[in-house]
Specification:
The structure holds two protein chains of two kinds. Chain A is mainly alpha-helical. Helices cover 36% and strands 7% of the residues of chain A. In chain A, a hairpin with a 4-residue loop joins strand 5 and strand 6. The longest helix of chain A is centred in the middle third of the chain and has 13 residues. By secondary structure, chain B is mainly alpha-helical. In chain B, strand 1 and strand 2 form a beta hairpin. Chain B starts with 7 loop residues before the first helix and ends in a 5-residue tail after the last helix. The longest helix of chain B is centred in the N-terminal third of the chain and has 12 residues. In chain B, helix 2 packs across helix 6 and helix 5 packs across helix 6. Classes of the chains: A mainly alpha, B mainly alpha. Chains A and B meet through strand 3 of A and helix 1 and helix 3 of B.
Chain lengths: 266, 155
Amino acid sequence: MSARRGGRPLPALAAACVVLGFTQAAPAAEIPSAERRSGYEFMSRETRAMQDDDATNPAVLWLLDGEALWNRKDGAAGRACADCHGNARASMKGAAARHPAWDAAAGRPVNLEQRINACRAGRQQAAPLAYESRDLLALTAYVARQSRGMPVDIAIDKRTKPFLDAGRDTFMRRQGQLNLACTQCHDELWGRKLAGSTIPQAHPTGYPLYRLEWQGLGSLQRRLRNCLTGMRAEPYPFGAPEFVDLELYLMWRARGMKMESPAVRP
Amino acid sequence: MEGPCPTPAAAVLVAALAVMPSGMVRGDTAAGAYAVVGDAVPAPLTAAPGDPARGRAIVLNRQVGLCLLCHSGPFPEERFQGELAPDLRGVGARLSEGQIRLRIVEPGRLNAATIMPAYFRTGGLTRVAPAFRGKTVLTAGQIEDIVAFLATLKD
């Protein structure tokens, strides 16, 4: 993909007005569906090839662990995921593409990691796995893999709408010492270079994914922490409602795009 | 940000007229006060003059100045310069020192939608990471060093 300009020109000085103390960035139009591009399309040919081939995609190591965990009996109930869910290839098809999803017990949307941990705690009677632990990443990657190629399909209804709106507000809000909003980079300046990195559109279609910079697998929330740290903003704790709301908004914003977990990114 | 936006010059002028008959507005970013006149902060932020060599080092330092994340400039030795902002080449010929100073101290005054951080601001920010809370991105002295350096970029 050529270094295309983002959806909008830089705001011209001549069109500026003086507003002090603002915290919302000027609302940018959502990227039209015809212009939506996965982070994959902004990567070098080598990195794309690494993702495409299971023989070179480093995330495959986690998939193997995830499959073993899926079949392993665990917890006081002595049951494996497979005991209830059978073959993940059939039962988990599409699960990642519809998360975060409403959870009646939590009374709010939960992401895939939280959904898996709810089964561990409630159904296996095992201790929940820590965020970013190898086991949770492996299980999540294994479950998410079963949605590869499927379109993101987030259900928004009366119950989930307020959480979607909260996520969108976070995306639009200026934060941190540098006073930047996600929308400024990812809706307005995508395709352009921030120092050496091409700014992608921030679609969450590949998580958990192998990031070359991490030399390991990481969750979407870990990626979001990287951007927040860059903005010199205080990251939310893993699993915080604000993060799940933001995930919900990002997934909804990518609706219809194809899932590609576990992906590779620079 | 709704409704018609006046041009920056006009807006600053209107604000100036409303505040002080002398045509000065007080900038106030909670870090310190400085006088904005038109589209410039004519008076230096420190008594000691800025040092262009130190200023150059700050501009090139991606952890301190951050400038090259967004800007490019006449720095052939620097790889991976940004492409989100005007090239700094010739900025000393385009802008006076006072105009450069305002663009670093408080760029939002000229363009409310700007992505350029206000380098001399601590107030009105949301969820600043603990390590940076209550601190400006750069000190007054560092800003004067940068102004002195950018003023030398005449062509």
